[in-house]
Amino acid sequence: MTPRYSQYRYLGIALTVFGYTFTIYSEWILSDVTLTALGLSIIILGVTLFFIPSNPIPSQQIRAMLEGSLINIEALLEEFDVLGKAVYLPPIDDRGNVFIPIEEAYICLYPEKIPIRMLTSSPDKPGLLVFPPGSEVVRLSLLPEDIGLEDALNYILVDVLEAANNVKIVLEMEEIVVEITEPRSMSDFPRVNHSLGSVTVSVTGSILAQIVGSPIYFDREEITKKKIIAFFNISPAGE
């Protein structure tokens, strides 16, 4: 149950109890039809809030759509034989994107100079510019401007997507290590997993780029039975 959903339910319970008490008092003590009708209206509002759905679209379906959207990215990476690691870029017009160099060993030093087109370069090495599946999730989640990294990751991955039980981060110099406990979404696309990270890690990269406001370089992920540990850099190693 998400915190927002919990707030709705608690408010619904409170309004229902108050409305019931108010209705009884207005009917039997005051004998006021108008106040009794008001009490009944409060009860109806409370019951409505209690049964409000936690998400208009079930989180499981959202996760399935995210995983399905990776099929086209996997096809692009295979078509151009892309071997590099993704650079998650801060949003432009509220939409983030990812630059993936074609060459495996190439480190993108000037991501701000990347032309906005699918087959692009930075500044002289070819790569692909794609819209990751997590970009729209981050945009539609309306994160507060002053939210911290760990709070943002837990809000989207745990509360909104219900894609994990908990998320923790460790900042070491310019490296960001993200520990995702009990992930529920795993993409079976080898090139996507190599270049962008699995679906939950890819969403993580988009969140980090938006909150940090700088390019986020995906390094690698380590997957065990109950957790994923993802490694990102705010600036490329060796810069």
Description of the molecule:
This protein has 239 residues and is an alpha+beta fold. It has 2 domains: 3-50, no CATH class; 59-233, no CATH class. It contains 7 helices and 8 strands. An 8-stranded antiparallel beta sheet has the order 3-4-2-1-7-8-6-5, with helices on one face. The longest helix has 28 residues, at 3-30.
Helix-strand blueprint:
Layout: H1 3-30, H2 33-50, H3 59-79, E1 87-92, E2 95-101, E3 119-121, E4 126-130, H4 133-141, H5 149-160, E5 166-172, E6 175-181, H6 190-195, H7 199-212, E7 216-223, E8 227-233
Antiparallel strand pairs: 1-2, 1-7, 2-4, 3-4, 5-6, 6-8, 7-8
Helix pairs in contact: 1-2, 4-7, 5-7
Percentage of residues assigned to helices: 40-55%
Number of strands: 8
Average of pLDDT = 80
From the spread of the alpha carbons, the general shape counts as elongated
Topology as H/E string?
HHHEEEEHHEEHHEE
Count of helical stretches = 7
Query: Structural class from helices and strands?
Result: alpha+beta
What's the domain count?
A: 2
| Low-pLDDT windows of residues | 1-5
Nearest-angstrom radius of gyration? 23 Å
Strand content: 15-25%
Question: Numbering strands along the chain, what is their spatial order in the largest sheet?
Answer: 3-4-2-1-7-8-6-5
Terminal CA distance reads: 43 Å
Main sheet overview = 8 strands, antiparallel
